[in-house]
Amino acid sequence: MAKDNNPNQNKFKISPWLIYTAILLVFLVISFTTGGSNLSEPIQLSPPNFNNLLQKGEIEKVIIYNKSETEVFLTDAALKNPANKKVAEDMFKRPNKGPHYVVKIGDIQNFEKTLQLAYAQKKIKNYSFQEKNNWSDILISLLPIIIIIGVWIFIMRKMSGGAGGGGGQIFNIGKSKAKLFDEKTDIKTTFKDVAGLEGAKEEIQEIVEFLKNPEKYTNLGGKIPKGALLVGPPGTGKTLLAKAVAGEAQVPFFSLSGSDFVEMFVGVGASRVRDLFKQAKEKSPAIIFIDEIDAVGRARGKSNMSGGNDERENTLNQLLTEMDGFGTNSNVIVLAATNRADVLDKALMRAGRFDRQIFVDLPDIRERAEIFAVHLAPIKKVEGLDLDFLAKQTPGFSGADIANVCNEAALIAARYNKTAVDKQDFLDAVDRIIGGLEKKNKIITPEEKRAIAIHEAGHATVSWMLEHAAPLIKVTIVPRGQSLGAAWYLPEERQIVRTDQMLDEMCATMGGRAAEKVTFDRISTGALSDLEKVTRQARAMVTIYGLNDKIGNVTYYDSTGQSEYNFSKPYSDETAKVIDKEISDLIEGQYQRAINILEENKDKLNQLADILIEKEVIFKDDLETIFGKRTFDKNLEEVVS
Questions:
Q1: Do 570 and 604 share a domain, yes or no?
Q2: pLDDT of 9 strictly over 60
Q3: What is the CATH number of the domain that holds 280?
Q4: Is residue 573 annotated as involved in ligand binding?
Q5: Of 71, 243, 378, 510, whose CB is crowded by the most CB atoms within 10 A?
Q6: Catalytic residue positions?
Q7: Domain range holding 53?
């Protein structure tokens, strides 16, 4: 079949927008030429005032429409009269050619006799009777509605055109919102700028090789992976890792969020997906990075109660189609990041779309030291600052948290007019981030201060006496954030947790309330956060981890996320009663255990509370002075100095 290659075949194609504009102009012309050209509406005139103007000879002509409505045109001399100032000019201060007034007719015969007499006396030049077609008035009154409907039809046609391909670009609403980072000028991040994440970097390094030298793999019959999913907690560096991949591979990098696909208009998300992949194919080899993909990639059909998810599901369907429709050697790889991989649609996770899942975990102690080194590079710090010490003080911190610690330490040092950031500034920054801002001006009565000191001393005492409880670093009764006191511990970084370890942690958590009971023989509301924590731990032991003898080796945890939309319990009412009883028994057992420990060390508890009231802050050395060293701490001396 012959192919028409005439470059001028679409040269004179008329845009629908021009057609709608022309229709609008036609309506405007009709409105101006059918009596609607007056930009000032005629004023209603009463019959006595009409007769007054008629007797003065100020009326030039009168037109009677359908023997019911009269239009009155004044003479030029009358228009110069200040009394007719309102009708002499239009809204643009131009001479008003009329009609200037309108008169409602009561008796047409008497009105006609009046006009005949005035005409005979030459007080009026002309009068006439005409039949008026009201279609023009109706058309003019409906003109705004017609314009709105026309514009709406135009938008809908453009949007439906976007659903079919290539359309949907009105006001660029269907265009992709992806930000393009050019490999020659914008992308400067490489793997050297990504501290830690050794496992993730090693796994993702192969993607860089795919983009740099695809023939190495395709020549052997292999297929380039379509995509890789970065999964991990917030702030662990998923976005930074994706940018580093683009920087290492030296390819264009399209970056956007999953929420950028979602719009109120039908078909916009799908249109943006098509436009994004079209741009990426044109610039291949390239990388598409979709951050927070769970905004658009949630499993379909789970929340059927609302009908507002159709657009999101259409967008997801288009994303699935585009990823599956890639050519084998298109050299475009999709990277996506989420911290909610459990809610993603299974079709999105299958091989052929996201072939690989790369887990980006929280950094360990060695990786935290490397991250500190990166973020401390631009900060003026004292000589010999121990990065390993800082890493040990920040267990469970993500890369974003460490960046925040470094920045907060610099702000604290500047607040005290220091020339360099020292170790204490970093410790204060960690306290500020974990516990909140100190509120030294908060008014606390001596009785309340004593209760707070006993509570915090109870935590410190019980945790010091238990083998598997986290070692204490610092205790304070200075209010921070929403808490009236706080204790800092250095938890052991465990990969698995055993029953005795969880029980020791629960017992230490209940130490505050137990101390109040032992000392005052009454309890207060100050243990709310402690109760919340131990209840969550006890419920997890019973219903999730299978660490309870009565319930047995059963878990009611649903990793697929289906339980979020399931309103029925996965167990019977009898089992629910057993679960409630076991949770209560676990908590009460550890509470009684904490009371027994504090009864045996009541004098030391009060001594520690007295030091807290005096100093407001105590450290590990103070506990060693009172209780002696913890014999079961292996590396405590190395961890806390």
A1: yes
A2: no
A3: 3.40.50.300
A4: no
A5: 510
A6: 456
A7: 17-136
Q: Is 233 annotated as a binding residue?
A: yes
The pLDDT assigned to 636 comes to 44
Q: Is 100 annotated as a binding residue?
A: no
Spatial separation of the C-alpha atoms in residues 250 and 230, rounded to whole Å: 20
Residues 372 and 452 in one domain: no
Same domain, 414 and 453: no
pLDDT tens, 259-317?
A: 777 665 556 777 778 888 888 888 877 888 888 888 887 777 655 444 445 667 777 88
Q: Is the pTM of this model over 0.70?
A: no
Amino acid making up residue 83: A
Domain of 537, CATH number, reads 1.20.58.760
Is 236 annotated to bind a ligand? Reply is: yes
- 272/223 Cα distance (integer angstroms): 27
Query: Is 261 in the same domain as 393?
Result: no
Cα separation of 601 and 596, whole Å?
9
Mean per-residue pLDDT of the chain: 77
The side-by-side arrangement of strands in the sheet containing 227-231 is 179-181, 253-257, 286-291, 332-338, 227-231, 356-359
Residues 180, 110 within the same domain: no
How far is 435 from 456, CA to CA, in rounded Å? 14
Cβ neighbors of 483 (< 8 A, separation 6 or more) are: 435, 436, 529
Phi, psi of 477 (to 5 degrees): -110, 15
